[in-house]
Amino acid sequence: MTKLNLITIFILILGIAGIFFVQFMTPTLYGADGYLHIRMAEFLRDLGPMYDFHWAKFSTFTTNFSDKDFLYHALLIPFTFSDNIFHGAKVAAALFASFLFLGFYMILRKYSDKVVLPFFLIAFFLSDMFLQAISRPRPISLVILLTIFSIHLLIHKKYRLLFFTALAYSLGHITSPLLILYALIVEVVRYADKKEFCAKNIFAVFLGILAGFIIHPNFPNNFSVFYLNSILVPLYTIKAGVLELGAEFFPLNTRQFLLSYPVVIIGLILLIFTAISKRPKAKFETSVFLTLAMFFLVLSFICRRYLSHGYLIMLIAFSSYFTDAVSDLKNINKKLIIGASVLIILLGIGISRTVRYNAIIARVVNTHYEQVGKWLEQNVPEGELIFHANWSDSQYFIGLNPKNDYFVTLDPVYMHNPNPELYKLYRDVSFGRTKDPYPVLKDTFKVKYGYISRNYFSGLIDQIKADSRFTILAEDSLGVIFRLM
């Protein structure tokens, strides 16, 4: 076994250990969605795939529910047997991230020289936002793994595997039709490079995705969810002011980009320098990854989530290009290796500080929500509808207290689409823009209990505290639980 092989094995072992270490830096989950995902896995286990999703009272889920992450939730089921399902969710998130890391290695080694491979394996950990994304119990690790594997299959025209991979992606996440676009991009690059066009690739992907949609247990409701999530939400992202979308739907500023994805910036600079100084002829495979990397980079200027989804594709593209550019990597300058190692150490120090900070924030915020969820479970009668000023708080509460119902979950489009006027009224009362919130909450929404987080909704808190028809039941520095008299 060579020295480089030993180094690679060491990085793989240390990397998996690092993934688990980051996951358990906080006793809580990272983010809000994981609380909902693990609970939906439990619903799937206990109720089967077709059930009445009454927990989102004013959304399309009450009448046309479709589990857009069905395969992911099915894979989470074994972790719901843990004494604490949220601990099970943490283990699941770490395992999925570890499988992604190993899958990334398996693909990276096919397009990289063994000299540069260790550096790009380490680069997997040199983005705090990427690490935070894969540490959350969400389907992102599964989606990225299926994406890079699909690109590899497209390059090598593995039609049967492509079909089944597209099928799995279709059952696992609503973004699966993007694979058709990736297939088109690969074939355009193939035609430009080789004057060939493999239509079978595109048909295999299309048929796999279509089959996934058709055999989905919530068919045909899944087509409606696809329309809302994949068509309307991107349009609303461009047209600001329609919905309150999560931060992931907006771009990073320059400072955030530089600090959170430094390898992307450094890689682009080195790529341009190499292209000008050496003018290497990129292989077809390299051209594919470079084109897809630029695709994700351009989209990231509109929506930051494309950076986390495309980060590993960018790393493979850089590694493959530098492999093509440097003909004799065995005799590469030792000073260059030392310089790269020092840079990695410096970046690692900066990233580790941010990762620790993110863990502290997750612990503080999610401990609060866990306490609120426990209070609601113990003190609110079963079946009551609970108001939540922040629409996304329901991700926490459905997971933590499923005996009560809430307004909308996963995305506000599910409430806005069936009733825009009701959604607007909901947001107006949440932000304290209604003159008298009491009749709106009591008569229109028919709630007796509610929770308000303090981050954006101080106006409503002030109204409630000044009105004797409301009683504050519990509060702390992050939020308020109230009751209508």
Low-confidence stretches: none
Compute the average pLDDT: 92
Largest sheet: 4 strands, mixed
DSSP helical segment count: 22
- In order across it, which strands form the biggest sheet? 1-2-4-3
Domains (count): 2
| Coarse morphology | globular
Estimated structural class = mainly alpha
Helix content: 55-70%
Task: Identify the quaternary structure here.
Answer: single chain
Number of E-state strands: 4
Please compute the radius of gyration using only Cα atoms: 24 Å
Tell me the fraction of residues in β-strands, as a range.
under 5%
Element order, helices and strands?
Answer: HHHHHHHHHHHHHHHHHEHHHHEHEE
Distance separating the two termini = 74 Å
Would you give an account of this structure?
The protein is mainly alpha-helical and 485 residues long. The protein has 2 domains: 3-30 and 68-332, no CATH class; 360-484. It contains 22 helices and 4 strands. It has helices spanning 3-23, 33-47, 61-64, 70-76, 85-111, 117-123, 128-135, 140-156, 159-172, 178-194, 199-215, 221-238, 254-260, 262-277, 284-300, 305-325, 334-379, 393-400, 413-416, 420-430, 437-444, 458-465, and strands at 386-388, 449-453, 470-475, 479-484. Strands 1-2-4-3 form a 4-stranded mixed sheet. A hairpin with a 3-residue loop joins β3 (470-475) and β4 (479-484). α4 crosses α9 (159-172) and α5 (85-111) packs parallel to α8. The protein is globular, with a radius of gyration of 24 Å. The relative contact order is 0.12. The mean pLDDT is 92.
